[in-house]
Amino acid sequence: MLRFILTRISLVVPTFIGILLLSFMLIRLVPGDPIEVRFGERGIAPERLAQLRAEMGLDQPLYVQFLDYLGHVARGDLGVSISTKNPVLTEFLALFPATVELGLCAMIFAIVFGLPAGVFAAVKRGSVFDHALMSTSLTGFSMPIFWWGLLLILLFSVQLGWTPVSGRLAALYYIEPTTGFMLIDSLLSDEKGAFLSALRHLILPTVVLGTIPLAVVARMTRSSMLEVLNEDYIRTARAKGLSSFRVIGIHGLRNAMIPVVTVIGLQVGSLLGGAILTESIFAWPGVASWLIEAINRRDYPVLQGGVLLVASLVMLVNLAVDVLYGMLNPRIRR
Amino acid sequence: MPALLEIRGLTVEFTTSRGILRAVDRVDMDVAEGEVLGVVGESGSGKSVSMLALMGLLGSNAKLTADRLAFAGTDLLTLTPRQRRKLVGKDVAMIFQEPTTSLNPCFTVGFQIVEALKEHMGGTRKWRRDRAVELLNLVGIPDPGARLNAFPHQLSGGMNQRVMIAMAIACQPRLLIADEPTTALDVTIQAQILELLTRLQRQHNMAMVLITHDMAVVSETAQRVQVMYAGQLVETRSADDLFSRPRHPYTAALLSSLPEHAERRARLATIPGLVPGIGDRPVGCLFSPRCAHANDRCRAERPDLYRDPEGLARCFYPLDDSGRPEGVAA
Q1: By the 8 A CB rule, do B207 and B175 touch?
Q2: What would the DSSP string read from start to end of B22-50?
Q3: What does the pLDDT read at residue B146?
Q4: Would you state the pLDDT for residue A218?
Q5: Which has the closest alpha carbon to A246: B145, B119, B53, B223?
Q6: Do the bridges between strand B62-65 and strand B3-16 make them parallel or antiparallel, or are there none, so unpaired?
Q7: N or C, where is chain B less crowded by C-beta within 10 Å?
Q8: Which residues of chain B have a CB within 8 Å of the CB of A254?
Q9: DSSP structural state of residue B97
């Protein structure tokens, strides 16, 4: 098992270098550097521009800038934001819990509803439920996030008034961040009603962000379960006189989970992509909206650092999934 | 001896995209307490399907009808699924052809044996574990205590079949159905597994239905034999009589394809053609297209099972002691 994990970790290194290079290059391909963008239409005197560029090291050749950046990253220094002058890591850490909270809730939502739905559809193959689930999940999978989000806001927030339109918490509460997770912080605080408010703010973004993973998990579970239910060992389990709940829930699901876990792991990457749209729609104060602002301001350190941190996280999650996969599937452990 | 298993007129039909396939056609079967019954036939003869039907393991596209399906006096047709589960796996157990795929790859063999015990016997955790060790020891697995934690992929096919047997006999069944238990194994292992099965059968006075296409396997173990062809029972009698004086031409043909019967001939005898499938069932006797003795009557009419002094044969012209059809000019 240890060797298995070490092999996986060694594969992370080249990916990490690729991300460093990409995040550094891509933002520099966008026209306009941080200084030009800051002064915008007002313009700036060429001498002053050259002076500011020299101060930030932007007048150096690209490879020098990159090596300089690499040196800082190697020392654990992601730099400071050009617009706020705060360390990138500090800003990231302050905003990241909000994104994680949203992402976790969306993933839990997808698994809690997708897994049982997929299992049920497989067991009742060809039934009305099966067909209904498969067509809704296809719709859900193809739904553009920004449109789906606006639709839900229009119905539940504007028409019915059941949920707030945006934000993370009603303005009348103030919660001191301790864990950064609003659901937990509001429970820990003395503010009555803050938890309910946080929960109500979470519902729509969770549904919007969780819809695509939900569809993917349900479809994957169904097809994987269908395959497993035809296996000989399922017949053996039934021949033992076990209840169908045990046959499907223990013998079937354990095997069917193996590809589903992989797919869930892969979804984490696209989940963060979806989070960027979701956070923008719901004005969710997370990493994604921070990154979008950084793009608009060409805040190179924030973008490089932010992308690097998010990408490392996705790699970590995929590593964890690989390890979990090994635990679920005894055949690949050695 | 009262019949432990009593089957009358068992019919299983599958709905397929090409129509209805009758895989088992009004089959009767009796198994007495402690008896070993061999069921032989080629692939597609319905021998496995009829036993899966008994176990309640058929898929939802199968339709089962029977005049009577009883185990130890209990009518299985009227049982609720829950009541049936109390019987299946406890009093009637089954082992399968492919031991390696028949065990769940995600669980240790210990877990899978203990699970059967837990379902039907209860007992404490320690008792179940001790019993599992005892069972592995009984089926001849060395170092049983350590093997409990092994996964199926860490054991050989022969070992896995031993585990399957241990699992099947865990709750001391009165009837064990062995569906081609040695087909997927090496020849050297086949003999060991057969020996193990017969030893356990005698020690526990357990009835056994041994499904196989291998006549040699039957001759070594079974007391009585039923021969099936295209879903129908074609011949049944004691093993001794069947091997010395087969009455049905199909049985005779199966026997003459055994290597030990081919001493005087240079080439091994074969049966030409295939078991009829869904669309090509003959009007007359189902075996007539492949039968060396078939005449116009055989091709036009379906024979019933006819009783003779030693057993039953589904043939208008059963073979006599010299192996020639009766009532037909030579």
Answers
A1: yes
A2: EEEEEEEEEEETT-EEEEE--TTSSHHHH
A3: 92
A4: 94
A5: B119
A6: antiparallel
A7: C
A8: 104, 106-107
A9: S
Contact B88 A251 (CB under 8 A): no
Query: How many angstroms separate the CA atoms of A151 and A75, rounded?
Result: 46
pLDDT bracket for residue B1 (50, 70, 90): low
For B42-55, letters b (16+ CB in 10 Å) and e give eebbbbbbbbbbbb
* Angle, vertex CA A28, rays to CA A24 and CA A30, nearest 5: 135
Structure tokens at B312: 């039953």
DSSP for residue B316: S
Write out the two tokens for B263. 């001493």
Is B324:B330 a contact under the CB 8 Å cutoff?
yes
* AA letter at A63: Y
User: Is A331 within 8 Å of B153 when comparing Cβ atoms?
Assistant: yes
Question: CB of B164 within 8 Å of any CB in chain A?
Answer: yes
Dist CA A170 CA A198 (whole Å): 8
Confidence check: pLDDT of A248 > 70: yes
| pTM of the predicted model as reported, rounded to 2 decimal places | 0.80
| DSSP symbols for A181-223 | -HHHHHHHSS-TTHHHHHHHHHHHHHHHHHHHHHHHHHHHHHH
Distance CA B236, CA B238 (A): 7
Which of B221, B19, B165 lies closest to A236, judged by CA?
A: B165
